[in-house]
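Quick illustration, no need to memorize.
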Amino acid sequence: MPITKLTPKQLHEAHEIPEVMDYASVQHQYVQLTKMWKCIGYRCKKCDVAFRSKIVLINHRDFCKVINTISKKRKIN
């Protein structure tokens, strides 16, 4: 039984979470030993924190200091 090798695009589509992709990205890594791509987790685009769990990433929106900070540009006088 052969192992199917996924391309980075297929791997990204398999691990994508639509509700958080506006502030997060999927992280991939190429493993030389198996010559395959694997998903190693997610990363917040705003604060650059890495996550391995989907649930932690989904809850991160409530706790991210960068996302929840009021920008001086948007501040109304």
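The chain has one domain: 8-63.
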